[in-house]
Every structure is written in structure tokens, then in C-alpha cells.
Structure prediction request, 185 residues.
Amino acid sequence: MASANDIRKGMAISYNGDVAVVLDCQHRTPGNLRAFVQATIRSIRTGKSSDVRFGSTERIEIVPLSNRKMEFSYKDGEDFVFSDVETYETVNIPPEIVGDSKNYLVENSLVTVTCIEEKVVSVELPSSVVLTVKDAPEGIRGDSANNVQKPVLLETGITIQAPLFIKTGEKIKIDTRTGKYMERA
Prediction:
């Protein structure tokens, strides 16, 4: 058993007889009051999120997680199909679990899938991905002041800001945490 101070984002804990994943966690010490940990957790069984407050010395049971390297294969209706890179076993993951990661998924993308008791709870992307520019309007001549950017459409359907010199068909590197352009690939 660990104390509430040991809770970190991404951990799984046992809460009210259910397993929950910690989505966000903040340690607070307000003025002359006792310290506490404010956490946002999502239940594995129901999928509902809630804000919970733990006393900093409260005992919490941490549930072990297993991480598997998987490759995005294709989209089957609403679900995303991933295959294990070692066993080639396929897993259908609903869009609620994939979340905003769908904006950076292309065929054969490697991701880390976190499971609790053989149930998928999260999909984690690498820190950066390389995507192809589907549509990039031409930069206007004389528009070359400091760091001018234009909106470009990527192969996954999202639009990001990129420098004026990026053209349609080029491959660019995107930071998956911020969704910003990094460099040409």
C-alpha cells in the first residue's frame, strides 16, 4: 500500500471497490490546512471520470499495469484496430480510449497500449510523429516577416500551423503533446 502522495498521472488505483486510472493529479498545501492530493480518476468499469480528494497520508492500493507495444492497423467503423508487434494478436479499441491520439494515427504507427487486467485503458503515442501534408496554401510573396505561419492540412485530417515554406506532399514532424510543427522530416 502506498500513500496518496505517491499517486502519479497514468497510475491505476483501487477506489471504492473499482479500478480507476489517474488522469490528473495535484498535490496541494493550502495555507494552514493539512496537505491533500486532488486527483481526476476514470473508472475502468463504467468509464466515468470524477474528481477525488485524498488526504496526503491516506493509504491507496496501486493496481499493476501492463504496457504492450502495438501497431495501428486500420479503422473498423468507429473502433481502432491495433495489432501486437510480437504476437500479431489484434485488439479493437473504442474511440473514447483512443481520444485525441486519433489525430496522429496513420497505418503502421507504433504506440504503447496500457492494459489493466487485460482491459485496454489508454493509448500513448510517441513524443513525435511524421505526417504527410495533404494541402498547404501557397505563401504570399513578401509575407516573410519573423516566423510567419500558415494553416496546413495533414493526412489524418487535422490542421496545424506550419512555416510558409512547407508545400503539399512534404513530410513534417509533429510534436504529439502540443500538436505543433517541429521540422521537416
Observations:
- The two ends are 46 Å apart (CA to CA).
- Residues 148 and 163 are 6 Å apart (CA to CA).
- The chain has a mean pLDDT of 85.
- The helical segments are 95-98.
